[in-house]
């Protein structure tokens, strides 16, 4: 113990870790500076606070003591896309002062946040974590500003391409087209994902026959899954507030794993169809079900009665998780960040194709932020 006062104690463990213990004014400490390894406290009120400190200096302890009694009671993220490549994200906390009248707290920012923060005055205190250096700031909110560079609905052709060879490869892909038999939401999604990539190739080489085959196959496969007929279906489970595709795979039913991985392919495919057939994607046609799929893994509403806000997106670490039960060998599982990006790009394309700015801007927030997290971590 390197310092104690009426309401707080600073201590350093044998491993060199520093902590501040903060009690209500009027509490009574026992065992402080008696040479024992134990201290106890009789609290004057029913709250208490403990924090890991960046160092063992008394000045640091005293600074943290000013904010130790402002308990965080709510946190929120909000985002705004200006339509010209700028994404502003606001992180806001609400505190309840348990003692005193101030409401500020000390916030820690991850590298993807502080590297692109807006007008933030950082303290001299840093924390070293497995995600890199975290910087500290006093307040209840801060903002980041990310540049969104856009996404392409397809890879464009160029003058150096051998269109004859490309068309031959396209014909080979069409010849191997096989959507027969039951298949789960993931591998079915992979197949419509493949067809979605073939669609613009058919347009670029001018193969209208292949174009119609692919477009009709995409529509047919999407409609087969989006129709409740006891075969390949999506089932809404009100107990868990989720839409589960059957046949399921990789724990998408039992653990609710991978929904963004799976459904992102279907949303991408639907966006490709919507770009070419807006009527098919209207709300009273097939668009209603696609919007339901989107709400399952990326609902932007905190008041959605059917689905949770952003499902499995880790708002503070800036990326999604494939599962949350921590049974993977390395903890929680996010083994395919590329498929997460695919899911967010699907939201952007679907939002653009259907003139749904809320879905588009949600996709831009998720896409742009997760790209930053991937690049940082």
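^ structure tokens above, recovered residues below v
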């Amino acid at each position: 113990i390197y310092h104690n006062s009426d309401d707080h104690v600073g201590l350093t463990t044998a491993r060199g870790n520093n902590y501040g213990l903060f009690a209500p004014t009027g509490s009574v400490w026992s065992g402080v500076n008696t040479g024992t390894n134990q201290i106890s406290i009789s609290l004057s009120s029913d709250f208490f606070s403990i924090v890991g400190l960046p160092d063992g200096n008394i000045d640091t302890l005293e600074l943290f003591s000013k904010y130790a009694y402002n308990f965080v009671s709510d946190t929120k993220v909000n985002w705004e896309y200006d339509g010209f490549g700028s994404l502003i994200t606001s992180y806001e906390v609400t505190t309840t002062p348990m003692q005193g009248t101030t409401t500020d707290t000390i916030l820690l920012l991850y590298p993807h946040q502080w590297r692109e923060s807006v007008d933030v005055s950082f303290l001299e205190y840093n924390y070293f974590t497995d995600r890199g250096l975290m910087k500290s700031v006093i307040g209840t909110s801060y903002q980041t500003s990310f540049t969104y560079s856009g996404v392409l609905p397809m890879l464009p052709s160029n003058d150096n391409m051998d269109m004859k060879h490309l068309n031959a490869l396209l014909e080979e892909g069409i010849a191997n087209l096989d959507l027969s038999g039951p298949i789960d939401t993931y591998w079915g999604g992979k197949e419509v994902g493949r067809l979605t990539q073939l669609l613009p190739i058919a347009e670029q080489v001018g193969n209208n026959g292949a174009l119609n085959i692919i477009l009709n196959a995409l529509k047919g496969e999407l409609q087969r899954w989006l129709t409740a007929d006891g075969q390949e279906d999506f089932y809404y489970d009100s107990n868990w507030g989720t839409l589960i595709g059957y046949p399921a795979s990789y724990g998408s039913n039992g653990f609710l794993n991978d929904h963004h991985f799976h459904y992102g392919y279907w949303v991408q495919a639907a966006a490709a169809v919507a770009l070419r057939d807006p009527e098919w994607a209207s709300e009273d046609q097939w668009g209603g079900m696609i919007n339901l799929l989107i709400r399952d893994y990326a609902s932007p509403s905190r008041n959605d009665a059917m689905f949770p806000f952003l499902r499995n997106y880790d708002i503070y670490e800036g990326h999604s998780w494939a599962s949350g039960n921590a049974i993977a060998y390395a903890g929680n599982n996010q083994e395919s960040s590329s498929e997460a990006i695919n899911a967010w790009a699907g939201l952007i394309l679907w939002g653009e194709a259907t003139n749904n700015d809320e879905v588009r801007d949600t996709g831009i927030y998720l896409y742009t932020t997760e790209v930053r997290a991937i690049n940082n971590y």
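The radius of gyration is 26 Å.
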